[in-house]
């Protein structure tokens, strides 16, 4: 009748199953004592299959409520290096957005390279932030040990603006990401400065000026316009 019989000997349980013309089915072998059911095996298998189907339907419904993608399209992969140059990053993000707008599910692969774990975390936040108006991450939070690996994968699926509004990036992480990005932008601008390039090539350069230029300026300040 579906009720619990209690703890009994294995042979006694088998005898009861035979008397009822049913099967003795092991349900949970990890419990002590093991849990069994006296029932028809085919009925139990049908119940398990039905539960799995209901679970899949519930999962699909939840995904439909949270995301807006085309299940017939393949998942697309986008690779980002933690120390990628800003122009390249912007180009990658533009292509990533195009895929999301076409309703592709995407997977961002953040490559660690020679970067630190913190840089890896900030790159994850930065990618999510750039796409947060049209997509949301699926597999957050990421396990801490995943940042010890050469790469970390973030599932980013498309969604409507209303669905995207339900996801908020932590302000602390976002601020840290902005700080990191501003530092990288300043570094790249400094590298593009011709005076800094000359300074790297000429060890005598200081403040973007050669020793001769500094001597001439010093003479002009002292009122002596002579040139050696």
Automatic annotation (TrEMBL):
Listed A to Z, the keywords are: Coiled coil, Initiation factor, Protein biosynthesis
Q: Where do Basic and acidic residues bias regions lie?
A: 185-228
Stretches assigned to the Translation initiation factor 3 N-terminal domain:
1-39
Q: Which InterPro entries match?
A: T_IF-3_C_sf, T_IF-3_N_sf, Translation_initiation_fac_3, Translation_initiation_fac_3_N
Domain of life, per lineage? Eukaryota
List the GO biological process terms: ribosome disassembly
Q: Cross-referenced Gene3D superfamilies, in alphabetical order?
A: Translation initiation factor 3 (IF-3), C-terminal domain, Translation initiation factor 3 (IF-3), N-terminal domain
Any one GO molecular function term: translation initiation factor activity
Which residue stretches, if any, does this entry annotate as coiled coil? 10-61
Q: Which SUPFAM superfamilies match?
A: Translation initiation factor IF3, N-terminal domain
Q: Where is this region: Disordered?
A: 180-228
Family, per entry: Belongs to the IF-3 family.
What protein is this chain from?
Translation initiation factor 3 N-terminal domain-containing protein
Source organism (scientific name):
Perkinsus olseni
